[in-house]
Write a structure and sequence with these properties.
Blueprint: H1 8-36, H2 45-122, H3 126-146, E1 151-153, H4 154-172, E2 176-182, E3 190-192, H5 197-208, E4 215-224, E5 227-234, H6 250-263, E6 268-274, E7 285-292, E8 317-319, H7 322-332
Parallel strand pairs: 2-4, 7-8
Antiparallel strand pairs: 1-3, 4-5, 5-7, 5-8, 6-7
Helix pairs in contact: 1-2, 2-3, 2-6, 3-4
Length: 334
């Protein structure tokens, strides 16, 4: 019976008499062995016990309590580990439940936007409305296949984004011009599921929809020192009334919350405006930018700082640790 926390008195009431019995038995065993080898003469029981207690009593007592203490320590350690595993499992289950709730919020929000596009086309262009409905069914089928995962290869994320843009292309027609710039050697990198769609939607809402002439949306993915950069850029004026570091829509709030859950607060998402001069005079262009980190080994810049290359190239940064950087270098050498 090991010592238990909260029951020391009860345990001592058991182990003190048990220790006396064990030590007495050990003394008698040592005496019998010594007698068989002729080391000691035959003696009375009281003499055996008196001599044994003087010679071995302290040693046998220390050994008994040392074994008992080691056993109790092992039991306490096992209980602590079991509690730590249980707490970690509960924390993981909670995080998964929160991510599932956020994904569940994303699906109705996206479906609502897509159905709005269908409604807008029903009276104006019924054939286009039919095409959008078919493409929406295809997109929802692909989305359901990916919705159970918190991350997926970039090539799958880009395919989901392309299907989404196919629907919006029918709605906006020539008003929407899409440019893709994706390095082939990053297509197998894991990214958070549905990380691009809210950013693309933000560009469509603030850069394409308000303008009769529409505009251009550029989607890029490229390696940068320390990770992978995803960028969604547009040439629109951007949301004037929105604070530069906060997203205003459900999609962006949802994305920011998912990044917080996935990356434990080491991810940030912000709306930034990059001013540039276009030929013939131009206005500022907005991009939705963020930075993600894979873990404690990542080099994380100060919150909200972006790698500046040329105008409109801020974007979601996927930082990574040493192992993923080695993977990127290896994939790039193929």
């Amino acid at each position: 019976m090991p010592l238990q926390r909260g029951g020391v008195a009860k345990a001592m009431a058991v182990h003190v008499p048990l220790c006396v019995l064990v030590v007495t038995g050990q003394i008698l065993i040592v005496d019998r062995v010594s007698l068989s080898f002729g080391v000691v003469p035959e003696r009375a029981l009281d003499s055996i016990l008196a001599y044994g207690l003087r010679s071995y009593g302290d040693l046998f007592t220390v050994i008994y309590w040392a074994i008992l203490g080691a056993h109790a320590a092992m039991r306490w350690h096992e209980a602590w580990r079991a509690e730590a595993v249980r707490a970690a499992r509960l924390s993981s289950d909670l995080a998964q439940a929160q991510l599932a709730a956020l994904r569940a919020q994303l699906q109705p929000h996206f479906l609502f936007n897509a159905l709005n596009a269908v409604v807008a086309l029903v009276s104006e262009d019924p054939p286009a409305a039919k095409r959008v409905t078919v493409r929406l069914a295809e997109l929802l089928r692909a989305t359901l296949a990916a919705t159970e995962r918190s991350s997926l290869p970039l090539r799958e994320e880009l395919e989901l984004t392309r299907r989404y843009l196919d629907i919006e292309q029918v709605r906006f027609a020539e008003r929407l011009r899409v440019e893709w710039s994706v390095d082939a050697d990053v297509l197998d990198c894991e990214v958070p599921a549905f990380v691009l769609q809210p950013l693309v939607e933000n560009a469509l809402v603030h850069a394409i929809a308000p303008r009769a002439a529409g505009g251009q949306v550029a989607i890029g993915a490229a390696r940068v020192p320390g990770g992978l950069r995803l960028s969604v850029r547009d040439d629109g004026p951007g949301p004037v009334a929105v604070a530069p570091t906060r997203g205003s829509g459900t999609g962006l709030r949802n994305l920011r919350d998912r990044l917080d859950r996935l990356y434990d607060g080491r991810a940030s998402l912000s709306l930034t405006r990059a001013r540039r001069r276009a030929r013939g005079g131009g206005r500022g262009a907005d991009s939705c930018a963020g930075r993600l980190t894979r873990g404690a080994a990542c080099l994380v810049r100060a919150g909200g700082e972006h790698r500046r290359t040329r105008p409109l190239q801020q974007g979601p940064h996927l930082g990574c640790g040493k192992r993923w950087r080695r993977h990127l270098r290896r994939e790039g050498g193929r």
